[in-house]
Write a structure and sequence with these properties.
about 15% strand; alpha/beta; three-stranded parallel sheet
């Protein structure tokens, strides 16, 4: 009788996220983005189409979706806390206490939800595929990609 691969016997889990699903600016920070409405509608504000695609994928895979709809121009969920571009030029000059509050309210919670989902699946013995949905812009910083 052939030996069964131990990895093949494990369950499989997809942890699906969409970090740049929207360009929402919370009311408390709207004044910081005065005059930036056009920029918020571009790839710098969010990944256009990513949230709709991620929702459809979540339904098809029958898996939860961890999505954020606050603009990445407030705080970028794909950046580590110490990354020099975690905050855009619209917020980076705020006092340290305000930046810490942005991290506490908008950066840490969604990242922790994804991390906990991965940990829970691993604790159940699953092999985990973390899958983040983003969109693509063919021109970035004036260069064709």
């Amino acid at each position: 009788m052939p030996r069964r691969n131990a990895a093949a016997a494990r369950s499989f889990a997809v942890v699906l996220s969409c970090e740049h699903g929207g360009n929402r600016v919370p009311a408390a920070y709207a004044q910081l983005f005065r005059g930036a409405a056009g920029l918020l509608e571009t790839h710098r504000g969010y990944d256009r189409g990513s949230l709709a695609f991620a929702r459809g994928l979540a339904r098809r895979l029958r898996t939860p979706l961890f999505a954020a709809t606050t603009t990445r121009m407030l705080v970028d969920l794909n950046r580590t806390p110490g990354h020099p571009r975690v905050f855009s030029r619209y917020v980076r000059k705020l006092p340290e206490a305000d930046l810490a509050e942005l991290m506490r309210r908008f950066h840490t919670p969604p990242r922790l939800r994804v991390e906990r989902a991965v940990e829970a699946a691993v604790a159940k013995g699953a092999c985990v595929l973390p899958l983040a949905v983003h969109s693509f812009t063919p021109v970035l910083f004036g260069k064709q990609r």
